[in-house]
Amino acid sequence: MSNYDFIAIEQKWQAFWKENRTFAAHQDSDKLKYYVLDMFPYPSGKGLHVGHPLGYIATDIVARYKRLQGYNVLHPMGFDAFGLPAEQYAIDTGQHPAVTTDQNVAMFTRQLERIGLAHEPDSHSMRTCDPEYYRWTQWIFLRIFHSWYNKDTDKAEPIASLVSHFEAHGTDKLNAHHDYAGSFTAEEWKGFSEEEQHKILLDFRLAYNAYTEVNWCPALGTVLANDEVVNGVSERGGHPVVRKPMRQWAFRMKAYADRLLDGLNQVDWPGPITEQQRNWIGRSEGANFYFEVEGSDATIEVFSTRPDTIFGASFMVLAPEHPLVAELVSADKRDEVMEYVEWAKNRTEVERQQEKKITGKFTGAYAKHPFKEGMQIPIWTADYVLWGYGTGAIMAVPCGDERDHAFAGHFGIPIPNIFHDIDTTEEAYTGKTGTLANSEFLDGLAVADAIPAAIQALEAKGIGTGTINYRLRDPNFSRQRYWGEPFPIVYRNGVPYPLDESELPLRLPEVASYQPGGDGEGPLANVTDWVNLPDGARRETNTMPGYAGSSWYFLRYFDLQNNDAFVDGDREKYWMNVDLYLGGSEHAVGHLLYSRFWTKVLFDLDLISHDEPFQKLVNQGMIQGRSSLVYRLRDTNTFVSKGLVKQYEAEGKLLDPIHVPVQYVDGNDVLDTDQFKAWREEYKNAELVLEDGKYVCGFQVEKMSKRYHNVVNPEDICNDYGADTLRLYEMFLGPLEDAKPWSMQGIEGASRFLRKVWTTFIDQEGQLAITDGQPNKDELRALHVLIGKVQHDIEALSLNTAVSEFMKFLNEVQKQKSRKRAIFEPFLLTLAPFAPHIAEELWERLGNPGPIANAEWPEYIESHTKVASITYPVQINGKVRAQLEVDADLGKEDIEQAALAHPDIQSWIEGKNIRKVIVVPKRIVNLVVQG
Ligand code: ANZ
Description:
Blueprint lengths: L5 H15 L12 E6 L14 H16 L3 E3 L9 H10 L3 H18 L16 H15 L1 E4 L4 E4 H11 L6 E2 L8 H6 L2 H9 L4 E11 L4 E3 L4 E2 L2 E2 L7 E10 L5 H7 L7 H11 L1 E10 L6 E6 L10 E4 L4 H6 L5 H12 L3 H6 L6 E8 L7 E6 L11 E4 L5 H10 L35 H14 L3 E7 L18 E4 L2 E4 L29 H4 L6 E2 L7 H4 L18 H7 L4 E4 L7 H14 L12 E3 L3 E11 L4 E3 L4 H6 L4 E6 L12 H7 L7 E3 L8 E5 L11 H8 L1 H10 L7 E2 L5 H15 L15 H19 L3 H17 L5 H11 L4 H10 L16 H5 L2 E8 L2 E9 L4 H10 L1 H7 L3 E8 L3 E7 L1
Parallel strand pairs: 1-2, 1-21, 13-15, 21-22, 23-28, 24-26, 29-32
Antiparallel strand pairs: 3-4, 3-5, 6-7, 6-10, 8-9, 11-12, 11-17, 13-16, 14-15, 18-19, 18-20, 23-24, 23-25, 23-27, 29-30, 31-32
Helix pairs in contact: 1-28, 3-4, 22-23, 23-24, 23-26, 25-26, 25-27, 27-28
This protein binds ligand ANZ.
Ligand ANZ binds next to β12 and β16.
């Protein structure tokens, strides 16, 4: 084989790696480990496009590099295989989601292997929808269900320790995260029936069952996710959507708010992601305090971050869902207020917060100011106050809070000023605050001092305490769908009970139809003989959401076959946590937050040894499509080449851009007109107005999508150019973290480079062209500059610059016509992580016995990089007598010494008188000699 036959080479080595399980991580190894992970993909029916492998290639380069460096590397890839698209497809076609999932996984696996990714051999078999996998997802759910959060020990504990506490002290001295409203003694606890005890414990468990509101679409008979609702109607079909309370599972994640915040300081994550998580958790310090209500026993509890502004409160607002609205509303206002409440309740939180329209109603009731005798504060209800945050009620301070200010302005409520030197009553809200005025005991204090002083006053009066509030909600953990993990839960008399672990996995039953059940329940509700148990119990018909299986999958890869535990403790200790995690930034608060939460619970329960799953996180940028456009003269079948568009427009003609498949367009945007005409019947007789004999397309950068005909399949690139070229080229496109458009323009360059590598090693007869012999200093310098840069760039994930180093290196050594083994063998090693197939092939042809994947990374010797040599002609009395090679950075004196010590010179100067030595740096050495 004299030509670079990448197809044959790539097939050969992919088969070799597979057969020899080259990339299997070693269990029970005493080497240092390196765990590198990609966020596992959902195997969609569309397969991979060239954007997906960007991150996979980057992690593959790191994994291969770390192997060469001697690490025991784990680089697995499985599938996040439950999810909506397969279910939607099942609804439309009746095809079982397991069947389509299998097909899609097979396609993904083929595509991934074609790129030569060094994945853990068996890891492609890992799918979250596999009953042998989801039995452990169900098992972990049960562990969470069987736990409570002890604030004294600041961790989750098995529910048994809570039961012991109740048996010893009742609710006395208990410091737990819970929803239980009552209290009882130890005696009372022991007197409760089992069912009563069980019900109480439900209010403490970390996985709990509660009625929460969902988006229910009666016309579609299904519950919709937030992003499936647009402007209050279903995205599909435009049917009305109402908020409906449904029994749902949730996790008491709020218990972990502070630890989830603190943990962010231990990990090496991109700033924007940690920032998003911090905002999502939204810790705010303030106070909870009470207002009494005129003519009623009721009190209104509010949460405020600014209790110091209490003297500026000119109205109160209750969330429309607040139960006190109905209780306090005056008779004459009842109808209009309750009508408003009904309207507002059905608006989603997003609508309520984003819409600028100010709405609200006065209830007719008044609160009493706790520090101002006789002052009455009108109580309103308005939808800008959310039921789910704080206490669902606020004191409104229009001079201190922007939304309160806007509300007061809108409804003509007074805007008292409590700040010195600032006119907060003005039309435009300024948001400035100074020292306090008109605030009795807080007068003259600056905000920082006024807040603690106000809290102290509230506490002294016994009407409030300092509190910390979190924006974080307990996440919903239920979906009314088929294609997810069934809950290991049954209901007796409406009370949820766990299955025994021995009953796991609880498998998804077969269903006749994937349509939802009645009344908002999922399709499982239709499988009556599965749902209804002989003893009268009823199974949970919700399934777990997509994030269930993905919250712990990283723990399974080193223990795929374990049937006794979700993970073996020793292996977990060795492999965790993930050293490098790569994926899209869209998972900032979803998957990444849930995984951290599950990890912390498992850690608390002593089931694993790490409490942060992902040490270093990197978000790869998106590869956008580069669409090609033709321009059709409106209402004709005539298409105008891009360069002529302006001219036509100037004549007042209208042109419509139309996307054409990027496959019909070459690297210079020139359209293959025959392909275009054959594309669709309507273009068969299209008239093309050319420029310089060509039809040039326009382009547009946008999402890679079938709709825009700009999807590029990596398999096609592999067939045309080879996987190694694809790998190099994807890295060469630009910094890993940046979004960038795909273009074919540079791919020739990457391909040419690899051909050049090939012909450097292999001559035209197909013989090895590499020679023996000692490398000179320049060759060594080029090599070690390369090793140092590539090493640095891989560690820094600056993979695009590493690729240009290879090109630079090759140009440089080619100038010297160098083909020495001592230079090119180490070069191959540095290239191997990037272009592994060609590297393996050439490595083998160099006569190496094992694969390059098992070789050692070349040692970087810095001193070689410092020096290039310079050859000085050395003259004696004007005649060149010797050539002196010295390090380029040698000083004048050293050069002089070296010249005098040169054997050829020695013979000339022996016994003579040296009158002068002149060193002209970088040029020449002159000796003036007498005698
Ligand atoms: C009085 C006040 C005066 C407030 C002032 C702010 C500025 P963060 O920082 O997000 O925690 N608030 C409390 N509960 C609310 C709810 N359920 N829906 C809407 N708003 C609510 O914000 C806390 C502040 O948001 C609280 O402090 C309260 O307004 C409002 F100059 O109380 B503040």
